[in-house]
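Task: fold both queries, return tokens.
Query 1:
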Amino acid sequence: MSYTIKSGDTFWAIAQHLGISVDALQAANPGVNPTALQVGQVIHVPGPNGGSPPPKQGGGAGGNGHIVGAHGGSNGGGGYVEYSGPASAYPNPSEWASYSFLWKQNSALMKLHDSDEEIGYIHEAIEKVSASSGVDVRCILCIIVQESGGIVRVGSTNNGVRNPGLMQSHNGVSFDPKDPKGSIERMVRDGTEGTRDGDGLMQLLKRYGNYYEAFRGYNSGSVNKGDLNDPVGATGDYVQKAANRLMGHSWPSM
């Protein structure tokens, strides 16, 4: 199925209109820059279950070798914004900062605690897991920083469930100094693709259909769709901070 771009269209608006996720739409159009849509441009629309993506164009579809979110995006910058309400009130993914901007911004924070080699392993793991899961590479990066500051030796938390590692996953693995590269990839994979004991961003994105509700589900286990600042027993500003990170905003103690 195809769709012809009209004036004012964005991937977010098209996905909402057609009842599919933005991620599925991006995955079905690996050669399309969602921030540079042209009136009259024809894009591929996946079926309700994801559909069949078009032939590979320089890397294939998300979850099949394509790093979602690696290209395009805004220049980032600016101060903290107190977003609130439902997902539709948060920034459209087409407004998020570019991956290159976000990597530069957040890898500088990692340098406070991690070695250059470890940061390189994080970078490699993020891109590898994005390609296999179809989760936007910027979301993986920002949730890593949100959960752990990108500190590979971060401790575990336990509020009834053990949450270890870079993404404080659901009973996943922690850093292993004897296998730094392998354990860093495993930590990123646990948080993104889930563990035997709990969902990751990939499963939550499929369940809720947008990243913001997926973030709330990741933090809280349940979602008040009308108010994503409702902590539902966890961190009230979790989604708000994630949105600010994705926009490339900066603030004290970020």
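Query 1 returned. Query 2:
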Amino acid sequence: MALADAVNVLFLDVWEFNAGWVDVRLSKDVVPSLLGLLPPSLQHAHTPLMHDLAQAIFESYPSLTFEDPSPAQDEHRPFSHMLQAAASENTDQTNIFFRNYQPLSVIIPWMRLLRSLFPTHVRMINIGVSYEGRDIPALRVGVHPTNSEKPLGPRKTIIISGGSHAREWISTSTVNYVAYSFITAYGKSQEVTKLLEEFDWVFIPTLNPDGYVYTWETDRLWRKNRQQTSLRFCKGVDIDHAYGYKWDAESHAANNPCSESFAGEGPFQGVEARRFANWARNETENNNVRIVAFVDLHSYSQQILYPYSYTCSTTPPALENLEELAIGLAKAIRITNGEIYGVTAACEGSVEQATEKKFWPRMESGGGSALDWFYHDLRVKYSYQIKLRDTGSYGFLLPSKHIVPVGTETFNAIKYIGHFVMGNKGIESEEGKSQGLLKEESTDLATKDIDTELRRRRMK
């Protein structure tokens, strides 16, 4: 494909892509060079999405002045700065932490505060150390019942991670929001309390702390980590494709270290990817842990992706189970805020696909992904990558007003995973009436939608 070749020649920053479109960041001066490498059919098949990138970047940082986002609604409502909000109050109205994106220097003390306020079910752990020597912090949330007469087997654990790509701030904020929602609902919500008793939940806001700090201090749109490469002036490895399973030697080795998708010169060369994999394997082999689900949050494009990423020619075991849960996640999100998330295999659009023995070139390699490594090498049955809002209007510069809506819909999706793994196939909530949903109706509706979608996919 001519566009894929042009991207490699010009070292363009591809923001997102699928079978129908590609979002590319480039300056006006580069447009003629790009068009000169494209066939006539693509000469006019483009449109600007963001006319003032600098302004959009500026607006993604926290405002220096405090503004109440909804003064009319809150005119007679007392504001609380406390972390532990009343059960009837919404997080967006009581916690200023989620009104803006937060730097790592704020996130880490906030995590420590949660640990101090909720010691019964929150622990702060360290996944490993980054290339520049920063801790990769995480919150382990869960309650181990002591009145069980059954012998205790491996502790079932669900991992929610974000921030593999530094500029995807909404993924980091969403991990924090979901963690906060679980932590503060324990003992108030029977649903959440049951989930915390059944599973340990590990929340990792950013797997790439060095890159995340760099986006705050130097370059808002930095993607990779900050690791030194073979080219002194081109730092960074794409840690999301630096894992060992099906790491594509031909594609990755041919990549220039200056490329946004450079994944190192060998598997696990990305320091943070290696640390995370070592931690996860040590948990399962030495700490009596069984990881039952892994969800890696990214942005953007509103998609729920399941294995495999490296190829579309291999069908993952238990494909129907992966699809069933993925469709349920999309349903949970749609019920929450009406947002539509697509469901597909991660390989579609990211690697070559064969059609009548014709192969389309890769836009970027899908090999070496965290998604595939957890699913295949660590045998995590339910492994997903969720690409959050939006579908291109703002891209990685999603305004902070979306933090709470995205967090809310993702929280409901993550709860759905817990119910599904426990054997409940519907969307269940004892607070259903207060949410405008009847438990029985929502469960039946979700089940019917999932069955219909699975039948449609089998008929393709």
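Both queries returned. Flag for query 2: DSSP finds 15 helices and twelve strands in the chain.
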